[in-house]
Amino acid sequence: MGTQGFSPRSRRDAQMIRFGADASRISLRGSLGEAPLETEVVLAQRDTRRAVLNGERLGSAEQLRHELITLVFTPDRLAVVKGAPAIRRAYLDRALGRLIPARAKLPGEYAATLGQRNAALRRIRMGQSTREALTPWTERTAALGAELVHARIVALSLLQGEFADTAGVLGLEQATLEYEGEPSTQADLDARVDADVERGLTGSGPHLHDVRIAAAGRDLRVFGSQGEQRVAVLALVLSEASAVRERVGKPPLVLLDDVLSELDGERRRSLADMISRGGQTVVTTTSAAAFPSEPAQSLTVLPGRVE
Asked: Are 155 and 18 found together in one domain?
C-alpha cells in the first residue's frame, strides 16, 4: 500500500482500517538509489484515498506504482498461473509498463479504443449508427492491437531467459513463457464484423490472448501441481526483478509473503542466494527457523508491537 497505493489483499479501504477507527495512515521512509524517499497514504471511511510522495500530493494513490517499483509474491497469486487468461494478460501488461516505460500507456490506450469500437458495434445493432462510422475505430483498434502484441512479446522475451534459469534453480526444469495469439489486422476485423455486430463485442484481438506458462512442455495451468505453480509465480517475480534491475538501473523492492513453506532446504538456500544479489527483499514466515541464512534484519510481529 505504501509504495503502490493499493493492497494485494483488498481494494476496499474499509477493510484496511482498524475496527472502530475512521481512518488509517501508512507512512514509509527510505531511499531510492541515492535520493531520500518518503511516502504517505491515508485511507478514510468517507473520503477518497490520498497519497503523498516526497511532500507532493499525487493525483491518485495508484500513481505511486508508476513512481516506485515493488514486486509482490503472495500465496494467492497462484491465479497468475492457474487462473483465467485475463489475469495473465493483466500481469504481463503491468510487467510491460515496468520493463518498457515508454509503452506503459499502450494497454490502456488499446482498451479505451476497443471500448469505443464495442460501443459503435452496439449502436449499429440498435440501428442508431452505420457501418461506415465503425471504420475509424476498426483501423485504430487494429493498429493499437498490433503494437500491443509486439510490446507484450518483447516484454516476455526480456523475462524468458531469467525465468527459465530461476525456475530451474528452484526445481522447475525447462520452464517456458509463450505468448498465445496473433494481432488482428483491419481485414480480420472487417471479415468478422457481422458476428461482432450481433454480439456487440470485438471477437478478435489481444484482449483475448493468453500467456502459456509451461514446464517440460506441460501447461502448468492444467497439468501443474500447486507446488509447481507456486514456483512458477515466484520465478516470474524474481525474473522480473532481475530484468527491471538491468533495464531501469535500480533494483525494485521485492515483497515475498510466506514463500518458504513449500520449498525444501536446498531450494530455500538457492532462494536466499538469489535475493541477496541486490536490492531489498522482505520475506515473511511464521518461523524464524525457516530462514536458510541470517537475514540482514529480523522483525518479529507480536500482538500490538514489533521487535
From this structure: no
